[in-house]
TrEMBL record:
Record keywords, A-Z: Cell cycle, Cell division, Periplasm, Signal
Name of the protein in its database record: Tol-Pal system protein TolB
BP GO terms, sorted: cell division; protein import
UniProt keyword Aminoacyl-tRNA synthetase present: no
Top-level division of the source organism's lineage: Bacteria
GO cellular component, one term: periplasmic space
Organism: Agrobacterium pusense
Subunit structure, as described in the record: The Tol-Pal system is composed of five core proteins: the inner membrane proteins TolA, TolQ and TolR, the periplasmic protein TolB and the outer membrane protein Pal. They form a network linking the inner and outer membranes and the peptidoglycan layer.
């Protein structure tokens, strides 16, 4: 049975040019490489439409940009000019007065064939010029995704880097009493909307991970009381076991090219790391110790692997070459370290740290230096990177709370956001940008 079909968004994209088009560079920009970024005041008007969908699109755009921590949408009650034609040059002085350094205008209309046409323009109010403009054609049910794509376009034009709003997150949804909790594999947009279940059984599921190259996830399930790693095709719902191993297999993760799965295999009281080629189904052992080696994560170039091991007496982070050679410890702070995840940018490794009775989410450089704690609490765990390497999502269990919830935090550590879901949620894994 087909479990989930990802949105097939066929977009006709065109630049919106006008006599007000901007030169290649405008004054409005954000340097996100600074340690502390002041959010850019941006005015986002309700997109013009005949049925209210324009206001919904602009609301999603504003929410995306605000959650990034880099933009501060101006309160609409402060707007002086009422935009009646988004194709015309706005009265820039009216927007300067309210300190809107950038302005977004647009419209959403319905074509004769039923499709939506969504168009926007981004204006630099201090340079008195248009920075960019595009239009998109799609089916009405895909309006939220169009809004995310527009938010990405604005983010990229102002920061110079790719956005992360047109993405999804696979996670474990948890419902029912704590003593008999049902855990299912679910998927949602990165802002918590459009939640869909991918599994529907009483079998425990853990550690879902997205493929970097296909609409596919890998996860661990205790189906039939036997923990195994599975592959699930999101488009068709087809599922298969990644090999039949005699022991427990867990912590699966794809290689950057999507051709291998790296995982931990437990046998005789210890666990070691293996890779499996998904085409030939051949396995290669990378570690060979009497300890627990687990939670492997590839570097984005596929040349190295970070993993956790208690071979030194407690959990610490190690790195090795992709063939298993050159294994070395890189974490040396107080406490124990786990769940290392290599940044898509290749510059940092995120981790969970347990010390002083708290669980923290932090990052360090790939040689172990420059450790920074981003957030701490009763129980934080399971970081996953947005595809641009600027934001992390994780799950938190607060003291006395009924169950875990998802949160996001940026690399400054100041912009922490609750991601609301219909049920308790854990083990998030961020997708790449959708095609």
């Amino acid at each position: 049975m087909k479990i989930f079909s990802p949105i097939r968004l066929v977009l006709a994209v065109a630049a919106l040019m006008s006599v007000f088009s901007a030169p290649a560079f405008a004054r409005v920009e954000i340097n996100i490489n600074k340690g502390n970024v002041e959010p850019l005041p941006i005015a986002i008007t309700d997109f013009m439409s005949s049925d209210g969908i324009g206001a919904q699109v602009s609301a999603v755009i504003a929410a995306d940009l605000q959650r990034s921590g880099l933009f501060a949408p101006v309160n609409k009650n402060a707007f002086i000019e009422k935009i009646s034609n988004p194709d015309q040059q706005p009265r820039f002085e009216d927007w300067k007065v309210i300190n809107a350094q950038a302005l977004v205008t647009g419209r959403v209309t319905r074509e004769s064939d039923g499709r939506l046409r969504a168009e926007f323009r981004l204006w630099d109010t201090f340079a008195n010029q248009q920075m960019t403009g595009q239009q998109f054609f799609t089916q009405p049910e895909n309006w939220r995704r169009v809004a995310h794509i527009i938010a990405d376009a604005i983010y990229e034009r102002v920061t110079g880097e790719k956005g992360y709003f047109d993405t999804r997150v696979v996670f474990v949804s948890e419902s029912g009493p704590k003593t008999a909790r049902k855990r299912q594999l679910s998927i949602m947009d990165q802002d918590g909307f459009n939640v869909r279940n991918l599994t529907n059984s009483n079998d425990i599921v853990l550690t879902p991970r997205f493929s970097p190259s296909r609409q596919e996830v890998t996860y661990m399930s205790f189906e039939g009381q036997q923990p195994r790693v599975y592959l699930l095709q999101l488009e068709t719902g087809q599922r298969e076991v990644v090999g039949n191993f005699p022991g427990m297999t867990f912590s699966p993760r794809f290689s950057p090219d999507g051709q291998k799965v790296i995982m931990s295999l437990q046998q005789d009281g210890n666990a070691n790391i293996y890779t499996m080629d998904l085409r030939s189904r051949t396995t290669t052992r990378l570690t060979n110790t009497s300890a627990i080696d687990t939670a492997p994560s590839y570097s984005p170039d596929g040349q190295r692997v970070a993993f956790e091991s208690d071979r030194g007496g407690r959990q610490q982070i190690y790195v090795m070459n992709a063939d298993g050679s050159g294994q070395q410890r890189i974490s040396f702070g107080d406490g124990s370290y786990s769940t290392p995840v290599w940044s898509p940018r290749g510059d940092l490794i995120a981790f969970t740290k347990q010390s002083g009775g708290k669980f923290s989410i932090g990052v360090m450089k790939t040689d172990g230096s420059g450790e920074r704690i981003l957030t701490s609490g009763f129980h934080n765990e399971g970081p996953t990177w947005a595809p641009n390497g600027r934001v992390l999502m994780f799950f938190r269990q607060n003291a006395g709370a009924g169950g875990p919830q998802l949160y996001s935090i940026d690399l400054t550590g100041y912009n922490e956001q609750l991601i609301k879901t219909p049920t308790f949620a854990s083990d998030p894994a961020w997708s790449p940008l959708l095609d």
